[in-house]
Amino acid sequence: MTQRPEVARALQASAPHALVDTLRAVLAEGYGALSVELLLADYGATALAPFGAVGTAAAPVPVANSAEGRAFGSQQPRQRSRHGDVVEHHLPVTVRGERTGILTVRLPVERSVPEAVDGLAQAAGLLGHELMVAERDTDVYQRARRISRLTLAAEMQWQLLPARACSAEEYAIGAHLEPAYDTHGDNYDWASDADELTLAVTDGMGTGVDASMLTHLAVNALRNARRAGISIEDQAALADQALYAQYRGAAYVSTLLLCFDLATGRVRAVDAGSPQLWRLRRRTIERIELEPQMPLGMFEETHYKAQEFEVLPGDRLLIVSDGVYAAHSPQGEAYAERALARTLHAGRLLPAADVPRAVLRDLAAYRDAESLDDSLVLCVDWFGRQGDRPAEPGQAAGTVPDAR
């Protein structure tokens, strides 16, 4: 039976565009695999787009109400028998919380033993890591996961994003943007090291490519400042200067910056615009009110001041753009007035990676037809360091998600 090092060596030696073909050959030899197929989550995270053998095409598989979708949602291997002598295994392809897709492997029934399933699950994890590297050098995987054409503005925004999920010992993050294939100025970013996690949620004014170009400058200015190792106040100030130098106040970016101390749960925040921050603690939902400061780029040499609050193990934070909290129902009620809290309560047992999509699904059913602004949701489940987690079960951060 093929061992993990052999699969890893084969994938690492593979051409970037040929990872699935390489894995197919390795699993056929080592496990007797009858077929191997990769399904990639599309940009809207509503479908799994097949990436099969070269030259083949197949319809996307819906995430809802499919065996593949159930494995994708649960992040657990699933299997079903086909024709009595073949077993189909659906294995999550996930890297540090980022859900890339599903690897479907068909084995003869006599080869479908627990040891084989464990080996296939490891192979799916190795494939996920290699896909992340391969996307630097080939477009084939990004092409495969498009079930519709991206606008140019959306293309720019998706290339700027870090991922849709991330997990570590202390936290789990999930984020999503809609409309996925036509987003404009909303964006999010994160980075962590041994001591801190920094989050940025930005909303560039305007629409189309103009909004995307504005957001690109803001996010890269924030990254440039963050990578210099300076405080979030100075990160905001330097990004503000970069935007003002380019646009002279004619365009600006609403921004929320958060910096988490991983050891203590202390959070330093700079609220420079419209994104709102909400907290679910046990069964209590409240908006964390921060002192509003000027959006980035509105005035020359704005000085920013950080505020502090604390997160406790079990807390869930939700950051939403104005396209979410300000969206109105046909009766004229803003989504943040009551509906947002209802959705948070209803999804309190969901993992962080699933929360943004749940909120955006509810929002789509709630708002009137004219509320078509970009909608961004970012969820943070805070676990804290080992020994700091709550004993009470059933809270938002009850378990750490699989971070293969």
Overall description:
It is a single chain. This protein is α+β, with helices and mostly antiparallel strands. The protein is built from 11 helices and 17 strands. The strands form 3 sheets. A 6-stranded antiparallel beta sheet has the order 3-2-1-6-5-4, sandwiched between helices. Helix 1 (4-13) runs antiparallel to helix 2 (19-31), helix 2 packs antiparallel against helix 4 (114-134) and helix 7 crosses helix 8. The chain is globular and about 70 Å long.
Which helices and strands appear, and what pairs or packs with what?
Layout: H1 4-13, H2 19-31, E1 35-41, E2 47-51, E3 61-62, H3 67-74, E4 78-82, E5 86-95, E6 98-108, H4 114-134, H5 140-144, H6 152-160, E7 165-167, E8 171-178, E9 186-192, E10 196-204, H7 208-226, H8 232-247, E11 253-261, E12 266-272, E13 276-281, E14 284-287, E15 307-310, E16 316-320, H9 322-325, H10 339-346, H11 355-366, E17 375-382
Antiparallel strand pairs: 1-2, 1-6, 2-3, 4-5, 5-6, 7-8, 8-17, 9-10, 10-11, 11-12, 12-15, 13-14, 13-16, 16-17
Helix pairs in contact: 1-2, 1-4, 2-4, 6-7, 7-8, 10-11
